[in-house]
Design a protein that fits this description.
mainly alpha, 2 helices, elongated
């Protein structure tokens, strides 16, 4: 469950970043609205998976930590690569 939460956090912020004005040109073919919906769905999946893995108290803390890790990794990947 922890791996599922981590992968969904990484995917969530990748989709949300690719829906932004700055990075939407990097991935053509998928509508921006679908990227946003998919990103928010993966954020919800991250929180649910973290709650299932660690329980309600530590799941909230771990889920937010994984979301921050996903946001940081997405930020670095999109801003330090050129296209």
């Amino acid at each position: 469950m922890i791996v599922l939460a981590l992968l969904s956090a990484l995917g969530a912020f990748a989709l949300l970043a690719l829906a932004s004005d700055r990075h939407r040109h990097r991935w053509t073919g998928v509508d921006v609205a679908w990227r946003r919906r998919g990103g928010w769905a993966l954020v919800a999946l991250t929180v649910v998976a973290a709650f299932a893995a660690w329980g309600p108290v530590y799941g909230a803390i771990g889920g937010m930590g994984l979301l921050m890790l996903g946001a940081g990794a997405s930020f670095l990947a999109l801003n330090l690569t050129q296209r």
